[in-house]
Structures are given as structure tokens and as C-alpha cells.
Amino acid sequence: MWELTFPRTVITGEGALEYLKEIEGKRALIITDKVIRKLNFVEKVANYLNQVGLEVKVFDEVEPEPSIETVVKAAEFARQYGPDWLIGLGGGSCMDAAKAMWILYVNPDVEVGEINPFAKFELRKKARLICIPTTSGTGADVTWAAMITDVKEERKMELPSREMVADIVVIDPEFPKSMPPSLVADSGLDALTHAIEAYVSQWSNDFSDALAIKAIQIVFKYLQRAYDNSGDNEAKEKMHNAATMAGIAFSNSQVGIAHALAHSFGAIFRVSHGRIVGLFLPYSIEYGVREATERYADIARAIGIEARTAEEAVEKLIGDIKALYREVGQPTSIKELGTSREDLEKRLDDLVTRAANSSCTFMNPRVPDVEDTRKLFLYAFEGKKVDF
Ligand SMILES: [Zn+2]
Q1: From ligand 1's centre to the CA of 294, what distance in Å?
Q2: How many angstroms separate the alpha carbon of residue 57 from the centre of ligand 1?
Q3: Alpha helices, DSSP H only, in 150-205?
Q4: Average pLDDT for 211-233
Q5: How far is the CA of 50 from the centre of ligand 1 (A)?
Q6: 206 vs 342: CA distance, rounded Å
Q7: Mean pLDDT calculated for residue range 345-364
Q8: How far is the CA of 324 from the centre of ligand 1 (A)?
Q9: What pLDDT, on a 0 to 100 scale, did the predictor assign at position 151?
Q10: Span 211-216, average pLDDT
């Protein structure tokens, strides 16, 4: 038996944002960051809401990798104001902060660390959530977990509750038009990793498979175009859709060890999420292939790779992924990323412990033990072959 969770309404395509004129309510709170504010996206959203009589306030203090403190502050702000609509506008950080603060807004006694899938939060008694992604990768607009950082512990917490999946998701191709190429690449690799990990996960199912495969095909067809030419609106729109499709796929399946390794590495070395999950993806495929050869081979065939055997198909898939990274200026090893071996080794025990304990490892096709996790970090340093 599978319980699948989807947003109630997804609006996509040109002019999607105009859907906000259908909203009925009194007060909206936009949860965003200072960069988004500068891009005038907040005004665009507020204008539509004002047109239908909603009062709008803005909380723009979300930082990249949002902290517990930010979530608490946003919830306090909301309690003073009393919105019946919350709007997560921005990249994954803004939308995850909006999801988590929603729980604290409605439940003042709940602490961030207590968010879990079994509790009842009754969120919709007080407010509903609209997610509007402005980057094309995180899938945070459609997932039912929020990634919040415990800064003191240098720890990323994955906080799940099916209640926090958005009521309305607006996938408007206008927003990604202003993404610079490096962000197109970073976020695109996140989408690719979500889709591939969702497809090979032990929890994959027919529904997640369909969305994952299509998202992978879109990334291979359009990511480089979106990166090479900022004015290629078709490619950017396709990538924007693929990110949300991959998000629905992995939130109804699971991500895998590329995410476990990346959450661990990213919390300590502060690297953009998409860049670092992408970096670990080819290594995690090599590691997992033994247990899921046919699944990986399906992906290879879906992007047009021809091979005599499944093993050969997967080998070519890894080659194609790395070739794509080179085309879009992304590193393929920790060394290329700019971290020294000395720094890596200094924090290696810590990295390994965090990654091995991540909830992302358990549904990977092959679950690494502590020793294999250590080998994966060392392998990803400069791609010198190791025996798993
Ligand atoms: Zn991700």
C-alpha cells in the first residue's frame, strides 16, 4: 500500500501567477528573502492579491539554508499579523521556511525539532499555503518535508508532515528567466538528482516513476540550453516544470545517498545544495548499481543511450552525466570544488557519521555502512577508484 501526496492545485505555464486573482481571503503573508525582494517579485505577487482585496505583509529575512531561529521569528511575525494565506516565494529555503513556520504559527507550543509525520497540526484551520518557486530545482514547492538547519549543531534537519504540502503551487515561467547560468546549473543538477534517486529508490512506484523519467528526459534535453542561453525561455520553462515534477516524484518515493552525503558535506563546508548533490550523484550510482542495474539502465535507455548490456548502459549514463556537468560548468569531484584533501580528512569522521545517520540512506538501492560511506567521500575527492 502506498500513500501518495500531491499539492491540491498546480498552476503552470505562461501567466500562471494571474491565478492569484482567484484567491479569497483577508490577509496574506509572503515569506521570502532579500534577493527576491530586490528582483521585484514580491510586488508582482502582492499586486495580484491586492487586486482581490487581500492585505499583504512581507517577511523577507529567510537566509540560505534557513535556521530554526528564522522559522521561529517568522512564526512570531505571523502571530502578530494573523494571515489566512501564507506564501512561500523564492528558492527552496523560502518555501521550506514557510512550511515549517506554518506549523509553529498554528501551534505556538510546538518546537521546530518536534515536527514529525505522526503529529496532527490542524494547519488549515488557520491558514493555507501557496508555494511559488523562483528557481528550478529544489522541488520544495511540492514536497511535504522542510529542510531546516540547526546552526549550533551544524546539522540539517529533514522535518516531514503531510499536512505541510502546499494547497496551491504556481509554476510561472516568468520567474526563472532572471536566474544566472550558475544558478540554472546548480538547481538543474538538484532536479536531476531528485529524479534519478526517486526512480531507483526502494520506495519507487508507478506514479513516482512516470514523473521521474520525464523530468530526467527534460533535464538532459534542456539544461544545457538554459545554461548556455539566458534568453532561451522555452528551455527555462521546461526546466522549471522538470524541477516540480522531480519534486513530486521524490516526495512520493525517496532520495538516496547522494543527498545523504551532500547534506552532511553541505552543512560543514557550506556548498550550494544542487552543486554538491550533483557532485555525489555519479559516485552514488556506481555504488548502487550492483543492486539496481536494470533500474539505472531504464534511465539510460530513456535518454536514448544504446548499449548491448544493462551494465554498459549504466556506465554510459554515468559518462553522460559527467559530460553534462562539464557543459554546464559544474565540478565532478570534491577537489574540483575547491576543498583540500587536508580539510576533507580533518572533518571526515564527522562527515561519515552524519551521512551514515541520514534518513536519505535507508531507501537507497544499496545502503552503505560506515566504512562504505567513508570510501564514498574519499572516492568523490578526486575519482580515484575504490573497492566497495
Ligand atoms: Zn535536493
Answers
A1: 24
A2: 29
A3: 181-200
A4: 97
A5: 34
A6: 44
A7: 93
A8: 18
A9: 87
A10: 98
